[in-house]
Specification:
Blueprint (H helix, E strand, L loop, with lengths): L3 E10 L2 E11 L4 E5 L6 H8 L7 E6 L2 E2 L5 H6 L2 E4 L11 H14 L7 H5 L2 H14 L14 H13 L5 E5 L7 H17 L3 E5 L3 H7 L2 E6 L2 E6 L1 H4 L3 H6 L7
Parallel strand pairs: 3-8, 3-9, 6-7, 7-8
Antiparallel strand pairs: 1-2, 1-4, 4-5, 9-10
Helix pairs in contact: 3-5, 3-6, 5-6
Bound molecules: adenosine-5'-triphosphate (ATP).
The site of adenosine-5'-triphosphate has 11 residues, from β2 and α1.
Organism: Oceanomicrobium pacificus
Protein name: ATP-binding cassette domain-containing protein
Pfam families: ABC_tran (PF00005), BCA_ABC_TP_C (PF12399)
């Protein structure tokens, strides 16, 4: 049994079947990629894991708990954390303060900007945040104001904010979107390092096949809301069904 088990999930938006009987089995400690052409249903599926959307039918089980019908912060407290395509950070605060706020939010269940004054005084939270910044290589930038960081560093900061909550499952929505190749490669290295350092399961949505094939142990291919193949990267490469799904995009 996987740490994340998705069974027979369906989701319609009006006349559109965005998810069509989706099944997914994510093994604990693995990096599992979800790929597929534009509009295949990848983000819709991820949204069903974090309480942003509720499937019409089906089940989503994480570590023995159903993720359906509970609030996003409750899902977060069960150990599921998500890195968004556009970093969700407090731009006026320092790098360290952003991570401290995320650590605090996980412990106390509230993500509030005005919590920063009491949080600044909490030594345990500061130590934990400093250790997380070291893990993602941002320790030298801890006092920088978040708004002045590069795009790549902002995404790294958001990853630190997620990691500071000690998640069991990290969901990454196109973690390298819009990055230059050098930044993309740094992100790949970081995710590989984290896989070695922490026993953390990762589900990653990604269009960049260089990233997918560098990281994933298992790949699920979505097309028109349906998982057409779930297999290892070796078997996915050149798979006729996958080529067909990408016809015209020619990425795999
Ligand atoms: N809230 C919504 N209301 C109506 N239709 C939606 C909604 N969200 C998504 N859709 C539609 O559902 C389908 C799947 O969208 P989704 O964003 O999940 O695809 P995706 O695979 O993540 O695409 P991309 O790679 O372009 O981000 C698309 O046709 C999209 O237009």
């Amino acid at each position: 049994m996987g740490i994340l088990e998705v069974q027979n999930v369906n989701k319609r938006f009006g006349g559109l079947q965005a998810l069509d009987n989706v099944n997914l089995d994510v093994e604990e400690g693995s990096i599992h990629a979800i790929i597929g052409p534009n509009g295949a249903g990848k983000s819709t599926l991820l949204n069903c894991f974090v309480g942003r959307l509720v499937p019409d039918t089906g089940t989503v089980m994480f570590n023995g708990n159903s993720l359906l019908g509970i609030k996003p912060h409750e899902i977060n407290q069960l150990g599921v954390s998500r890195v968004f395509q556009t970093p969700e950070i407090f731009t006026d605060l320092s790098v360290l303060e952003n991570v401290m706020i995320a650590t605090f939010a996980h412990r106390d269940g509230a993500f509030k900007l005005n919590a920063i004054d009491p949080v600044r005084k909490e030594v345990d939270i500061r130590d934990h945040a400093e250790a997380t910044l070291l893990d993602v290589g941002l320790q030298d930038k801890r006092n920088m104001v978040a708004s002045s960081m590069s795009r790549g560093d902002k995404r790294r900061l958001e990853m630190a904010m997620c990691l500071s909550q000690d998640p069991k499952l990290l969901l990454l929505d196109e973690p390298t979107a819009g990055m230059a190749r050098a930044d993309t490669n740094r992100t790949i290295d970081l995710l590989k390092e984290l896989a070695e350092k922490r026993k953390l399961t990762k589900v990653i949505i990604e269009h960049d096949m260089h990233v997918v094939f560098s990281l994933a142990q298992k790949i699920s291919v979505l097309a028109q809301g349906h998982v057409i193949v779930e297999d290892t990267p070796e078997n996915i490469k050149g798979h006729p069904k996958v080529r067909e799904a990408y016809l015209g995009e020619a990425q795999v």
